[in-house]
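Minutes, project huddle
Topic: does the predicted pose make sense with zinc ion bound?
PN asked that the exact inputs be recorded in the minutes so nobody has to dig through chat later. Recorded below.
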Amino acid sequence: MATSIADQVPIAEGLFTWPSNDPRLLGSRCTNCGVVTFPAQSSCAACAGTDTETMELERKGTLWTYTIQCFLPNRPPYEGPETPETFRPFGVGYVELPGQTRVETRIKCDDPDSLRVGMEMELVVEKFIEKDGKDIISYFFQPVEAA
Ligand SMILES: [Zn+2]
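Predicted holo structure (tokens), as shared on screen:
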């Protein structure tokens, strides 16, 4: 694992505040109609307005819906830490952030069978994979109980 912050790279620019001790997802809010979107957009899908502002999103929300990925997705395009030998089923779903938007996310949970719609979830930003000697940092949500 890379040890310096310089060796930690976000999986994509503009998805979350980084580096940060308290990272937040970055969404956009339409200044015309108030609709919040993640990832941030420069125009609004709801009203076609083109005046949006970037905002930090809530850290906590509730699991809106999910499914369990039971097999290793095709690679490419999928990138992940698993090999066929180490793969374990994982949850993917949407977390609803109160008053904001729904975020599509991989769910960090040792026991995906314990996931329930409506359970409280919180943001985690951490290493996802290692690539070219760098830690690729991504975001996840995990059940609050797991913290
Ligand atoms: Zn709008």
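Observations noted during the meeting:
- The pocket of zinc ion is lined by residues 30, 32-33, 35, 44, 46-47, 49 (CB under 6 Å).
- The mean pLDDT is 94.
No decisions taken; revisit at the next huddle.
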